[in-house]
Write a structure and sequence with these properties.
- The protein has a four-stranded antiparallel β-sheet.
- Helix content is about 40%, strand content about 35%.
- A hairpin with a 4-residue loop joins β1 and β2 (about 75-85).
- It is built from four helices and four strands; from the N terminus they run ααααββββ.
- It has a single domain (about 5-105), classed as Roll (Nuclear Transport Factor 2, Chain: A), CATH 3.10.450.
Length: about 100
């Protein structure tokens, strides 16, 4: 449970979005393996539709800018999303540490 590991996991989840790996992104949720297959498929499709929007299509890079770790094995990571038009946006991502590593809450 380190700051670096939480930041790397958060960056990796958003890098999946940039690469178009929407299924991998959805599988990054803590309870993904317990989701009904139909729901997981719908969530993957919804993620793809969200990323197809004009304002998200130009997402080109992500970097973790700060984080906080809690004793209950949770983390909150702030990410800076960078777009092709030189704009950026900051978002927060909640994570939980599982036996398989950091997962999105």
């Amino acid at each position: 449970m380190t700051h670096e590991a939480a930041r790397e996991a958060a960056e990796e989840f958003y890098s999946m979005l940039i690469k178009g790996d929407y299924k991998g992104f959805v599988e990054g949720y803590v309870d993904a393996e317990n989701m009904p297959e139909d729901f997981r498929s719908q969530l993957t499709d919804a993620t793809a539709q969200f990323m197809a929007k004009d304002d998200m299509r130009s997402l080109c890079r992500v970097e973790a800018t700060s984080d906080s770790l809690s004793e209950d094995s949770t983390a909150y990571v702030m990410l800076q999303l960078h777009f092709n038009d030189s704009t950026s946006e900051q978002v927060g991502l909640s994570l939980i540490l599982t036996e398989d590593g950091w997962k999105m809450k």
